[in-house]
Amino acid sequence: MKIVSDFNGVIFNNLALHEHYIKFLEHKGIDSRLTELVYMKHSETGIPFSLRRFLWTLGIRADVRSVLDPHVYDEILLGCKRFLNSDVLEVFSSINKKDIILLTKGDKEYELDKISKSVGNDFAGEVILLTDGKKEILRHISDTHKNETIIVVDSDLTLMSDEQLKRNKNIIVIPFSRHAINDFSNVIQKYRFEEKKQYRK
Questions:
Q1: What is the pTM of this model?
Q2: Residue 138 near residue 171, CB atoms below 8 Å
Q3: Which residue, 49, 93, 124, 138, could crosslink 100 as a Cys pair with Cβ 3.0–4.6 Å?
């Protein structure tokens, strides 16, 4: 059994980190309205978000040179552990790390730093940085581990109805919400039990 989980949408609260660095930058003397404006302009470019690049742009725009210090980036990410979904982590704690695959999308340095500063580099057996959508990589994971059940935990509801994914019979998609942690846990327990039964035969 492999558990494939979206990092930002399931394990990590990206919105809380965003609010954290807005407040952090306010203490550095940058108006939150400017921070939001620069963030919005950056989002419109379609370029993967890089906190380091964002801080550089913001520091220049606001003429606050202290924000350009590389230590500011590190200081902001020190708070990453506070933005983890503890209920989900409790479920993951019973899973062998080599069976966990994390998916994340964005700037490589920023995404890997968030993972490192929050759950740690040894949380998962594999981390896949997406450059496009998830469906193609999920089909690839399914084909690579065709003799195993692939449980996908994601907040993207379109994955459940995707006809191509449905053709991969070993994929089970669990729609994630913070109100349905028990559903997630129960499905994992069910398939773990099924695998143990098959192993005993």
A1: 0.87
A2: yes
A3: 124
